[in-house]
Design a protein that fits this description.
Number of helices: 30
Largest sheet: 7 strands, mixed
Number of strands: 21
Radius of gyration: 31 Å
Shape: globular
Structural class: alpha+beta
Distance between the termini: 28 Å
Length: 840
């Protein structure tokens, strides 16, 4: 904002400069925004909610001053010239709230009809709006329930969800056209798909080498053989009826491997063609509270660092920041079939935190076909996405913003990736196995190989303590050595680029064996093709969901001595003997010399104590919807078969009560503190000053655990706990950067599979149909097309107003008492800004 615009606002409210500024604002605002003799009052008390007369608004601005949310708008209006040549810039929409129609109907050249104005829609946007207008025609003369476009999309969605074949769908269309000759129905499935494609709802099929070496795409689109391994692009199939001994056998051109790519640019452009979403796309800049707490990734150091490094990008609030999530899943819902399909999903971080991880806002970008995981070759399949992201960064795409009524150049960037630890290695190129498994500690990872357990352990957490801490000198209770190490410095993206200078990537499953290099890097990640990637301080996220699941497995398995899960076994005791520590736990020969005996450790429980421990988990009464029935996983003093969210709930809430009843205080206390640490890590609002305390706590907790549990307990997942606080500081709240919403979204993709021989095709068509439904909810809701749910509202996104769903999924109406209880709960659990929006 120009400094001259704010000079009168900065003066004392009794000064003549301030009084003249208020007069200028009122003189210009009433002709533009007045209804009769009233406009909305932008003072601190009214905050644009009340319509008041001019004299009352004058008094309010003198007594209370302008609201900080509308200072820029007030200054713009007070400097607006009324000759129609220099109108207010209202690209942000600030001050209009929900009265957007008034903004476009007001006088002034810049606020005329957006489709006819000087800065109206560009060619692509005009074509899109023309299709939407045409699609809003009634299905048949006199129809008020459906438009022809909404009915066609609903019919297409019905076909995909219920697995209707194309031939059956074609016959159904013919029957409907014969029965309803006046209805505007498509003549074929191809015509319906072409209409959907005109709206930007489409995907591309790209052929790939069956050995994952290259894509037959861009400059390689005309090739029939792979350049690396020589494999054919096609599957050779003999045609029926050809002679058996014919030397010239005919073949059908069927691609050996196909990936699906969903273009990103039209999907981003469409977000700004919807008024409500265009308003939400700048929430990260103008809608959140600025009190120094972490509520959104925009509050984190990584976002701020990128903004300071690239001020041109950050100067436009509508530029989009994305997250890239990748994970593999079995589309058949069966554990006895080995099949791994890998989708790549984009997360839109411009949206508010209660919307950015919702399923309707996750964008499927790439679908990599199975049956095998792409592993390090995932970079081959990400080439189209990276190429489009580079174009969006360097050139941008011309986009029409319906909220402002103007075109602008939209740019986009990737903040980080989200994946499990296996996916971390695939996306970053750093090997997450072996002695340097920690990507944060990198070359300074402290690890030891346990000869008898045949695994690596990661201890030495004393090096994160203060240099003068007394535990650094304690050899007896730790590993028998004095700790002199220091906390390692983080490898920056520039450091990694320098390390990988001249590194040559090798892709494909049948490549020549490359020279073995002494480096934990298996490749140079394709993300380094993005010009800003090396300056990003948080490129890949550690997934707290899988970390918690593994930590819970280790704790429960060891405490309850579950076979195959316990980390305290004979080999672990021999490792202690090998290291020369904790002599009381060393294995000894029995009196007859035929057996090996081991002494009970401090954390071992009797049968009675195990029963008490398990009873806490089995008999816990939990609020409906907060967790699954954890008691069904408790069987004969064992806890088996629980899922990731169950582990999350156990660690946060139930473990502290179980260990307090069953274990000695010296064992129970560190585990209780671990529960408190995890609850702090998962806070939706994080106080930065508390992060230092949480970091100090987890170091002490891990050191305490080193005194209690054997070395085999400390796998890489236990060690990664020490790095979670740093990632929160850089990336913002943990619940916006983990795999929980992504895993739930994968379950939704599994539900699309109808043709088990082509699961990826079913998923692509199902996603496209679901995207069409979301499109109808945003653009055709005036016709009552598909859904009357406002997808932008955090409450209505899952429930109809005045209704709720029971456990069977059926909708029933709330009583007055239930409705009041729900309303009270929302008011008590929302911030001030959310309450003001609900009150409006």
């Amino acid at each position: 904002m120009d400094e001259d615009y704010t000079v009168w606002v900065d003066f004392p409210r009794y000064s003549q400069q301030y009084l003249d500024g208020v007069e200028g604002f009122l003189q210009n605002a009433f002709p533009l925004f007045g209804k009769g003799d009233e406009i909305q009052c932008p003072c601190k008390k009214c905050t644009n909610r009340l319509w008041l007369r001019r004299d009352v608004i004058y008094d309010h601005l003198i007594c209370y001053g302008p609201s900080s949310l509308y200072v820029e708008w007030i200054c713009d209006v007070s400097h607006t010239k009324m000759n129609g040549k220099d109108n207010m810039d209202c690209e942000t929409g600030m001050g209009f709230e929900d009265n957007l129609d008034d903004m476009f109907d007001c006088t002034g050249k810049g606020f005329q009809n957006v489709e006819e104005g000087e800065d109206g829609p560009n060619v692509e946007a005009a074509k899109f709006y023309r299709h939407v207008r045409e699609g809003k025609q009634p299905l048949y003369p006199g129809c008020t329930k459906f438009s022809w476009l909404s009915f066609m999309i609903r019919l297409y969605h019905f076909k995909c969800v219920h697995g209707i074949t194309e031939s059956a769908f074609q016959e159904l269309l013919g029957l409907m056209k014969a029965a309803f000759p006046n209805a505007l129905l498509p003549s074929s499935l191809s015509e319906a798909k072409n209409t959907i494609r005109d709206l930007g709802l489409d995907y591309q099929k790209i052929h790939a080498c069956p050995n994952n070496c290259m894509l037959f795409w861009a400059q390689n689109s005309d090739k029939d053989m792979c350049d690396n391994c020589g494999a054919s692009r096609w599957v050779v199939q003999e045609k029926k009826g050809s002679p058996v001994n014919d030397p010239q056998k005919l073949i059908d051109k069927v691609p050996a491997m196909v990936m699906r790519y969903f273009p990103l640019k039209p999907r981003l452009q469409r977000l700004f063609m919807c008024k409500e979403y265009s308003k939400l796309m700048i929430w990260h800049a103008v809608g959140q509270m600025k009190d120094g707490k972490l509520r959104h990734p925009a509050d984190g150091e990584a976002w701020k660092t990128m903004d300071s490094n690239y001020p041109l990008f950050s100067s436009e609030n509508r530029n989009i920041s994305l997250g890239v999530a990748a994970d593999g899943f079995n589309p058949y819902r069966s554990m006895n079939l080995s099949h791994s399909t890998w989708p790549i999903i984009l997360v839109n971080y411009n949206l508010p935190p209660w919307l950015c991880m919702k399923q309707e806002n996750l964008m499927l970008s790439t679908l990599i076909s199975g049956p095998d995981s792409p592993k390090n070759n995932i970079d081959v399949f990400m080439q189209p996405l990276i190429a489009e992201l580079k174009e969006l960064w360097d050139v941008g795409v011309k986009t029409y913003d319906v909220l402002a009524g103007k075109n602008f150049t939209l740019h986009a960037r990737v903040l980080w990736t989200i994946s499990d630890f296996q996916g971390y290695a695939m996306l970053s190129g750093w090997s997450t196995k072996g002695k340097l498994a920690c990507p944060v500690c990198h070359y300074e990872t402290s690890s030891s190989y346990l000869k008898h357990s045949r695994k690596m352990c990661y201890m030495h957490h004393r090096k994160f303590l203060h240099p003068t801490h007394k535990w650094r000198l304690d050899k007896k209770r730790f590993n028998g050595e004095i700790e002199t190490g220091q906390s390692p410095e983080i490898l920056t993206g520039t450091d990694i680029e320098e390390l990988l200078r001249g590194f040559e990537n090798w892709f494909g499953t049948k490549k020549e064996k490359a020279k073995k290099i002494d480096s934990p890097f298996k490749k140079k990640s394709i993300f380094f093709d993005l010009p800003y990637w090396c300056h990003n301080p948080l490129r890949h996220n550690l997934d707290a969901m899988h970390i918690e699941k593994n930590v819970c497995d280790n704790i429960l398995g060891t405490l309850l001595n579950i076979g195959g899960k316990s980390k305290d076994h004979v080999n672990a005791r021999f490792d202690l003997q090998e290291m020369g520590i904790r002599k009381a736990l060393h294995p000894v020969l029995s009196a007859d010399g035929k057996h090996i005996e081991i002494q009970a450790a401090i954390f071992d429980m009797t049968k009675k104590e195990k029963e008490v421990f398990c009873s806490v988990l089995k008999n816990a009464k939990l609020p409906y919807g907060s967790a699954s029935n954890i008691g069904r996983f408790v069987q004969e003093r064992k806890v088996l078969g629980y899922k990731s969210h169950d582990a999350h709930f156990i660690l946060h809430y139930l473990l502290q009560f179980a260990v307090k009843k069953a274990l000695k205080p010296e064992v129970a206390l560190p585990l209780i503190r671990l529960s408190a640490f995890l609850r702090g890590v998962w806070s939706k609002v994080v106080d930065v000053s508390m992060l230092k305390k949480l970091q100090d706590d987890i170091i002490i907790i891990l050191c305490n655990l080193e005194m209690i549990f054997p070395s085999a307990f400390f796998d890489i997942m236990i060690h990664l706990l020490v790095h979670l606080c740093r990632e929160i500081e850089y990336g913002g709240p943990e619940h916006l950067r983990n795999m929980f919403p992504i895993e739930r979204y994968l379950a939704k993709l599994k539900a699309y599979v109808r043709n088990r021989s082509k699961p990826e095709g079913s998923i692509a068509e199902g996603y496209l149909a679901d995207e069409c439904v979301t499109f109808c909810a945003r653009f055709l809701s005036d016709d009552g097309a598909i859904s009357n749910i406002d997808v932008t509202c955090p409450i209505q996104a899952e429930y109809h107003i005045d209704t709720r769903r029971n456990k069977d999924g059926k909708v029933f109406h709330l009583t007055d008492a239930e409705h009041k209880a729900c309303h009270r709960y929302v008011l008590f659990n929302c911030g001030n800004q959310e309450i003001e929006k609900l009150m409006e």
